[in-house]
Structures are given as C-alpha cells and as structure tokens.
Write a structure and sequence with these properties.
The chain is mainly alpha-helical. It has two domains: 1-31; 35-172, no CATH class. It contains six helices and no strands. It is flat and about 55 Å long.
C-alpha cells in the first residue's frame, strides 16, 4: 500500500471513530440524561489522565533528544515520536479535557465556586505549558533546539505540581 493510500485509510478510520463517538454521545443524551453527569465526569477523568501522561512523557523525550546528534537516525526517530505524541495523544486529550470540564462546570453549578476559579487558573497555566511544548516540538523538528538537557528535566516538574494542586482543588474544594 502506498503512503498516500495508507494516509487515506487512516483518515477514513479516524472519521468512522469520530462518527461512532458522536453517535454514542447523542445516544447517552437521549437515553440516560439523568446519569449523564457521571459518564461525562468519567470521560473527563480519562481525558485528563491521557493529557497528563503525554505532558509528563514529552519533556522526557526532549531530554533524550538533546543527547542525540542533529540529523542522526536517533534524532529523526525522536522527532517522529514527539510529533505523534503531541498530535495523536496530547492535543486531543487537552481538547477533550477542556470540553468535558466546561460541561461539568456548567451542569454541576460550579462556575461561581472559588475552588473552581483556582482550578481553572491552574488549568490555563497547564494549557500554556502545553503550548510551549508544541513550540519546542517544532524547534526540535527544525533542528533549532538551543536548550540543554537540564532545562527539560526542570520543566518536567511544572505539570506535576500543577496536577497535584488541580486534583486537590477538585476533590477537597477547600474554598
């Protein structure tokens, strides 16, 4: 199968997957609206876990990538891994996290709560870090990284600290 045909098949499969997902969501709204909140919360948790897994792994790839010579086979492999992780896992998971979280905040009546405002501010910061990751993936892809391994080791701690604070705010609701 040629590269172009394989790419077309992937798009068809992705379209089918999205159509099935949309149909399931519509069915849930029509069939079980009183229990929908719990299903959306479950989907939100899965999306957050996926987003965080990628946010914690990508800087580790950057660390390893800084050790490889520009233009080497290893460097080219890291470029593919970083791009795919960002596009296939991290970006969709962030979008799902935001969409589902917005619905939960609205439907759950949390928009006026202090803990929610704190959580929202931290999620905005986490999203900004996500944006920086996208910039760094692009720089590595263009062989324009100027940052040392130590920088990526340190930056990896930010999402972890934010995740802990966000979970505490969402579960404990201290204010």
């Amino acid at each position: 199968m040629t590269g172009e045909a394989a790419g077309g098949n992937r798009l068809v499969r992705a379209g089918i997957g999205l159509a099935i997902t949309a149909a399931l969501i519509v069915a849930l709204f029509l069939w079980w609206p009183s229990r929908l909140y719990d299903w959306v919360k479950a989907a939100h948790i899965v999306a957050v876990i996926s987003w965080m897994a990628g946010m914690l792994y990508l800087p580790r790839l950057f660390v390893y990538h800084t050790r490889s010579a520009r233009g080497s086979e290893q460097s080219e492999t890291f470029k593919v891994m970083e791009r795919r992780l960002l596009r296939v896992i991290i970006n969709p998971a962030m979008i799902a996290t935001w969409a589902l979280g917005a619905w939960l905040a609205y439907d759950g009546g949390h928009l006026g709560s202090g803990w929610f405002h704190g959580k929202l501010a931290l999620v905005v910061v986490l999203s900004a870090i996500h944006g920086l990751y996208a910039v760094w993936v692009r720089r590595f892809a263009e062989d324009r990284n100027t940052r040392p391994e130590r920088f990526y080791r340190a930056i990896n701690e930010g999402p972890t600290v934010l995740m802990i604070a966000i979970v505490i705010l969402a579960v404990v609701k201290p204010f």
